[in-house]
Write a structure and sequence with these properties.
heterodimer; A: mainly beta; 6-stranded mixed β-sheet; 4-stranded antiparallel β-sheet; 0% helix; B: 7-stranded mixed β-sheet; globular
Chain lengths: 115, 112
């Protein structure tokens, strides 16, 4: 069974600064994908970034990037130049490559942006 | 494309009542899933389907029933609602099991 752990229930950052959200996971699969989802107050789940486990290069999407450490089973999200619109819950999730079921989610990190 | 749609957006039930949460997608995705989200718990998988006529249980299936008669629709049935089923419910779909999941807007259910 997979587990995903987010150890920071809440993080706060000044607007325009950089913040890193932590995530660790545990899986016995060799082929899997990792995701970060954003959930604003509207409660819509929005995909921020994804990482294929077989790729060594860290994924980036504009101001969002990940630090994927496969041996340590760590998958942190870095948000650069934080903006007020980044305030939301952020969920780390894993999708096993060997199974057909859904995602395994962490409990989430509430990100606060201080103006 | 409308993507993944869910109805209703909000629902209040009394203990013991039954109801069906509707989910539909127009992206011709084979894989569909139902999750529930509780405060401090993240999202947990209830049931999932890998194609029409095929369903299976997730992490928290008790008290819920699903069926998949078409590729587009994946309804979730609460057989006899209990206060412990008060939650936000999300439906999601994806093209293949390694692909990105697309989520519906969610249904907030309160059981009194």
């Amino acid at each position: 069974a997979q587990t995903v752990t987010q150890s920071q229930p809440e993080m706060s950052v000044q607007e325009a600064e950089t913040v890193t959200l932590s995530c660790t996971y545990d899986t016995s699969e060799s082929d899997y994908y990792l995701f970060w989802y954003k959930q604003p107050p509207s409660r819509q789940m929005i995909l921020v970034i994804r990482q294929e486990a077989y790729k060594q290069q860290n994924a980036t999407e504009n101001r969002f990037s990940v630090n994927f450490q496969k041996a340590a089973k760590s998958f942190s999200l870095k948000i650069s130049d934080s903006q007020l619109g980044d305030a939301a819950m952020y969920f780390c999730a894993s999708n096993s490559g060997g199974g057909a079921d859904g995602l395994t989610f962490g409990k989430g990190t509430h990100l606060i942006i201080q103006p | 494309n409308a993507g993944v749609t869910q109805t209703p957006k909000f629902q209040v039930l009394k203990t013991g009542q039954s109801m069906t949460l509707q989910c539909a997608q127009d992206m011709n995705h084979e894989y569909m899933s139902w999750y529930r989200q509780d405060p401090g718990m993240g999202l947990r998988l209830i049931h999932y389907s890998v194609g029409a006529g095929i369903t299976d249980q997730g992490e928290v299936p008790n008290g819920y029933n699903v069926s998949r008669s078409t590729t587009e629709d994946f309804p979730l049935r609460l057989l006899s609602a209990a206060p412990s089923q008060t939650s936000v419910y999300f439906c999601a779909s994806r093209r293949g099991y390694l692909n990105e999941q697309y989520f519906g807007p969610g249904t907030r259910l309160t059981v009194t």
